Amino acid sequence: MEVGRRMNERRQMGALEAEVLELLQSSAEAMTPGHVLTRLGDTLAYSTVVTVLTRMHDKGLLGRVKQGRAFAYRPVADRHGLTARRMRQALDADPDRRAVLAQFVGDLSTGDEEILRHLLDGRQP
After folding, report:
1. Are residues 20 and 66 in the same domain?
2. What percent of the chain has pLDDT over 90?
3. Which of 37, 58, 35, 55 is CA-nearest to residue 46?
4. How many domains does the chain have?
5. Which residues, in sequence order, are CB contacts of 45 under 8 Å at separation 6+?
6. Which Pfam families does the record associate with it (predicted)?
7. What pLDDT digit, counting tens, does each position of 85-111 carry?
8. C or N terminus of the chain, fewer CB within 10 Å?
């Protein structure tokens, strides 16, 4: 029962991270935990927001700067950049890059393969 509860909490934390990331990406400026908490609604504890922001920073998803007594956070890249970063991290995690890339390319749709070919050739898709 304990394991199931922890798995559920982990899924909820992932959903919260996604919500926080979306909020930060829609903001023109970096946000402190207090600002994030206000925008998300006051159903969360301040410490929960700080924990989520800190973990996202540790994962390399967010940058932060000191703003008064707190840090202000912003995404290190836009949505496309973060997706590309996750793809690179997955590739870097496997020692056989060639096999991973071959599998990836082999699984692409015809349209995606054409886009990739154009990009590799330096042309617009």
Report:
1. yes
2. 75
3. 37
4. 2
5. none
6. Penicillinase_R (PF03965)
7. 889 999 999 999 999 999 999 999 999
8. N
Residue 19: inside a domain: yes
Mean pLDDT, rounded, for 36-40: 95
| Long-range contacts of the stretch 87-91 (C-beta < 8 A, 24+) | none
Residues 17 and 67 in one domain: yes
The answer to whether the Cα torsion of 65, 86, 17, 14 is positive or negative is negative
The phi, psi pair for 45, rounded to 5°, reads -80, 150
Q: Are 73 and 56 in contact (CB under 8 A)?
A: yes
Residue 65: which domain range?
2-75
C-beta separation of 112 from 106 below 8 A: no
- Read off the tokens for 24: 């930060």
What's the rounded Cα separation, in Å, for the pair 91 and 6? 28
Instruction: Note whether 116 and 56 are same-domain residues.
Output: no
Question: In whole angstroms, how large is the CA radius of gyration of the chain?
Answer: 19
Tokens standing for residue 99: 């096999």
Sole residue written with tokens 């990739």: 116
